[in-house]
Structures are given as C-alpha cells and as structure tokens.
C-alpha cells in the first residue's frame, strides 16, 4: 500500500456509486469539460454541459445548455437532466453552487470551491493540512503593505485574494518605491490582498491527486512545469528532480487531498528551491493543464480519474507508461501546427517520438489563447524536447 493509499484508508463509507449509462452534468463547457466528456464517454457515461458560448468545446462532444454560469433557471435544468454534477472551473457562483447542492447530487460539495476561490482561505487550509506555503501576510492598507514588504524584503509578490489566474491579479514588487502603485492597482479589484515572500525556486512542479467519496486517494507522477509569460508552456514528466523530491511532492498532494476532504481532483502547484524545499503555490480543484500529459502517458488519464472519483468508482492506476513532454498550443501556434500535421513528420520519425495532438475545437485562434496541446511521447524527455525545438512551432 502506498503512502497515499494509507492516508485515504478509513474515510467515509456512505458514498453513492453512479454507474455508466448515467448522465454527468458539467458546469462549464471549455476544453476541460470536453476532455472529461471524452474520457467518461469511453466508460459509457453521457454528458451535458452548461456554458454561455454556443458550440463550446464541450458542447461539440456532449449536449449543451447555452446559458450564463449564474443563470439559476439553467442550473436547475442541468440538475434535472443529470444524475450527478461536476464543474470544470473553480469560480462557480456561490448561489448556483448552493442551489445545485440542494437540487442535485454534487459529490465534490461546495466547501472546496469556497476554500480555493480565495488565496488566504486556501493558504490557511493547506497549512492546516500540515503542508508549507510561501510565507505570506494579509495586507489591508498601504501601511500594512509597507510593514509586510519590510518583513519579507524585495522582491516580493502582491496578489489579489480572488480572481487571479495565469499571472493576472499580481504584482512583483522589486523596490519600495513601487508600493503605492502596486497597492492602488491591485486594490481596484476590491478584494483582499496578500503579500508573499518571493521564492527563488529552481523548478516549478505540480501533482494531481484524486480522492473518491469513499476516501481512496491516488496521485499522478509530478510534472515539471515551464511557464512563458505566466502561461504554462511545457510539462516535463518524469520531472528532472531526485526521486526523493518526486515522492515528497506526491505525498504532500495526497495530504492536501485528505486534509481538505477533496472529492474529484486537486491540482497542487509547488515551488522547489535549490536546497530541496517544497512550498505549495496554489491549488485548483479540477483537472489541470499540467495534467494533460496523463492522456497517453499514464494508465489512467486525469479526466478518466475525475469521472471515476465523482461517480464513486474505484480509482484507476496512475502509473507512467512513457516519458512525455506536454506542450501547449496557443493561438499563434495553430497555423504552423496544422501545416505540420498535413505531412509526414520526418523529424518525429528520426527522433523516435510520437507527438499526440489534442485540439479543443475553439473557433477563433486568438493570440495567447489555449487552443490545444501536444503530448510528445518519447524514450526520454530530451528527445521530446528536441522535437519541440526542431519543429519551430514554439519559437519562444
Ligand atoms: P500564480 O498566479 O500564483 O500561479 O503565480 C503565477 C506565477 O508567478 C507562478 O507560476 C510563479 O512563476 C510566479 N510566482 C507566484 N508567486 C510567487 C512567489 N511567491 N515567489 C516566486 N514566484 C512566484
């Protein structure tokens, strides 16, 4: 029994099992919903998504109710038509979440959403689970910010407690002269602010853990993540870190899944320092971009695992089948990628790699918009990285 399995033992027993044939409702119809529906359809489930965009990525592979996320009438229809409800983003409207909890079966609950929607609540919950986050202080005024900057030194990172993603809602304070401007700018978001010590990390890692309502926990192998302009560019697996660090990262993720009573998936983003310390940066209570590599590289993908967890099935084996590098396809990468797909890929043949393309069916290839990803399967990650460099699709 692994460390993670032991942690999950003995948890609540009265969980509902939703068998294939049933309909899963998804709040949100983006690429994560699409990949949940594709994986779950293979198991025999049906899917219906609620999303305001007609012909949304998930709506192309499942049924779709076209309405706003805060439309209670539409949420009620979703509840009526589905046997179990899940979500593909964390900023679910609190009123809709409460209504769905009442009208339907939402095994993930609303507590985890409440926690992860707010950086301060999230950090406190992680600490309560016995896991370290970067030192931080809540700051409610310029004076408090000045005091916190004096405590942590520069650089340090000011973040909004809610609404930030892909680097939005944060400011790296590099000198004390920036304090006023940083505070005034982020304070416009009208949410609490938190100052974090700047972690001089060697690497960014992430681990996705799954927990079922029965308390079973499994973790996927840690990914080494490389961001460009605050957007995930590469996930490299196995991460190029000592085995000890990989095990520790998985152990921390399992601990968070247990401590926070997660049902479904929790993605745990971590900083690894040069002296081997791990700090949690943030959590996402859903499938995560840094887990897309699991689609071909693991025995069970994160999407199948998510469906298994919310439906109360036993969790799947998360073993890694092959080294892999996941590279994101943004709007600007679409043209060269499609061109390459139309011809025999001699570079891939020469390097002995298998690039598996996943596109999300988004209509407009806007600059920086996530359009898809490629899982480059290879005998070692260097060969996969060589393919990415040689294709010239990602000229960064
Ligand atoms: P976040 O929105 O919190 O995921 O932050 C986006 C990116 O900013 C992270 O992936 C890091 O590269 C960087 N970052 C965030 N917080 C810190 C920190 N406390 N120290 C150093 N870098 C950070």
UniProtKB/TrEMBL annotation:
Keyword Nucleotide-binding attached: yes
Entry-linked NCBIfam families: PRK06019.1-1, PRK06019.1-2, PRK06019.1-5, PRK06019.1-6, purK
Database matches in SUPFAM superfamilies: Glutathione synthetase ATP-binding domain-like, PreATP-grasp domain, Rudiment single hybrid motif
Job description of the protein: Catalyzes the ATP-dependent conversion of 5-aminoimidazole ribonucleotide (AIR) and HCO(3)(-) to N5-carboxyaminoimidazole ribonucleotide (N5-CAIR).
Keywords, alphabetical: ATP-binding, Ligase, Nucleotide-binding, Purine biosynthesis
Organism whose genome encodes this protein: Paenibacillus oenotherae
EC number: 6.3.4.18
Record gene name: purK
Residues that hold ATP according to the record: 119, 159, 164-170, 196-199, 204, 227, 281-282
GO molecular function, one term: 5-(carboxyamino)imidazole ribonucleotide synthase activity
Coiled coil: none
SUBUNIT field: Homodimer.
Top-rank taxon, per record: Bacteria
Catalysed reactions, as listed in the record: 5-amino-1-(5-phospho-beta-D-ribosyl)imidazole + hydrogencarbonate + ATP = 5-carboxyamino-1-(5-phospho-D-ribosyl)imidazole + ADP + phosphate + 2 H(+)
Domain (ATP-grasp): residue spans on this chain: 123-311
Pathway(s) the chain acts in: Purine metabolism; IMP biosynthesis via de novo pathway; 5-amino-1-(5-phospho-D-ribosyl)imidazole-4-carboxylate from 5-amino-1-(5-phospho-D-ribosyl)imidazole (N5-CAIR route): step 1/2
Name the record gives this protein: N5-carboxyaminoimidazole ribonucleotide synthase
PROSITE patterns per UniProt: ATP_GRASP
Family: Belongs to the PurK/PurT family.
InterPro entries the UniProt entry points to: ATP-grasp, ATP-grasp_carboxylate-amine, ATP_grasp_subdomain_1, PreATP-grasp_dom_sf, PurK, PurK_C, PurT/PurK_preATP-grasp, Rudment_hybrid_motif
């Amino acid at each position: 029994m692994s460390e993670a399995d032991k942690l999950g033992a003995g948890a609540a027993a009265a969980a509902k099992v939703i068998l294939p044939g049933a309909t899963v409702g998804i709040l949100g119809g983006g690429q994560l919903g699409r990949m949940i529906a594709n994986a779950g359809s293979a198991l025999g489930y049906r899917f219906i998504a609620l999303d305001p965009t007609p012909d949304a990525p998930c709506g192309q592979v499942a049924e779709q109710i076209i309405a706003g996320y805060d439309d209670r009438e539409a949420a009620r229809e979703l509840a009526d038509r589905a046997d179990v409800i899940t979500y593909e983003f964390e900023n679910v409207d609190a009123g809709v979440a409460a209504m769905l909890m009442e009208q339907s079966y939402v095994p993930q609950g609303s507590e985890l959403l409440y926690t992860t929607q707010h950086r301060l609540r999230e950090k406190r919950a992680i600490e309560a689970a016995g896991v370290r986050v970067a030192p931080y202080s809540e700051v409610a005024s310029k004076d408090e910010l000045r005091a916190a900057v004096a405590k942590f030194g520069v650089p340090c990172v000011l973040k909004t407690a809610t609404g930030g993603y892909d680097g939005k809602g944060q400011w790296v304070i590099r000198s004390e002269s920036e304090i006023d401007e940083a505070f005034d700018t982020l304070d416009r978001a009208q949410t609490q602010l938190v100052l974090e010590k700047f972690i001089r990390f060697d690497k960014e890692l992430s681990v996705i853990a799954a927990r079922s309502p029965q308390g079973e926990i499994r973790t996927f192998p840690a990914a080494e993540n490389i961001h460009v302009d605050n957007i995930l560019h590469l996930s490299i697996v196995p991460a190029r870190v000592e085995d000890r660090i990989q095990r520790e990262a998985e152990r921390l993720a399992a601990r968070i899944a247990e401590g926070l009573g997660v049902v479904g998936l929790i993605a745990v983003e971590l900083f690894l320092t040069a002296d081997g310390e791990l700090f949690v940066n943030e959590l996402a209570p859903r499938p995560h971009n840094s887990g897309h590599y699991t689609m071909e590289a693991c025995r069970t993908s994160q999407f199948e695992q998510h469906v298994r967890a919310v439906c109360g099935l036993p969790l799947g084996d998360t073993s890694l089948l092959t080294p892999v590098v996941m590279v994101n396809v943004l709007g600007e990468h679409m043209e060269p990628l499609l061109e390459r797909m139309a011809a025999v890929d001699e570079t891939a043949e020469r390097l002995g790699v298998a690039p598996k393309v996943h596109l999300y069916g988004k209509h407009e290839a806007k600059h920086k918009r996530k359009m898809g990803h490629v899982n480059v399967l290879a005998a070692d990650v260097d060969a996969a990285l060589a393919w990415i460099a040689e294709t010239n699709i990602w000229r960064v």
